[in-house]
Amino acid sequence: MHQSIEVDEKIFQDAVKFYGTIFNIPPLASKIYSYLIFDFEKVGITFDEFVEVLSASKSSVSTSISLLLNSQLIIDVNKMDERKRYFFTNDEYMKIRFEKIVQKMKDELKLLDDLNNFRKIKDEGYNEKISAYKALLNKNISNIQESLNKL
User: For residue 132, how many other CB atoms are within 10 A of its CB?
Assistant: First the structure.
């Protein structure tokens, strides 16, 4: 079997490091995801190709693919008249990722409000800092939501 896509080794290694860190995924899962981003023509990559190209065991590749599917980083498709599954990056993931970020910021805003309401002692310096931080969160939420609407 040969690689069905062309991969630049330096960019691939940079992507493995970056996505492993940003998505907090194990090295093999990061390699699979990084390999998939080179599938510019969206032909799809098979399980067997991952095993061969990445020199990994079938069980390790299977575990990593399951992790990526569960975290919605990738999708799988069965093509007509074939038993093989083809894997692709999830084009919707950018939107999903930033929706999660917005939700975390909203949750933090609520927590800050709850903590401030619970405080017995009022400290103007603390309140100023929290107000500035909340304004920053609100501005970022607004900016991200505006960008999401364009996606």
Answer: 10
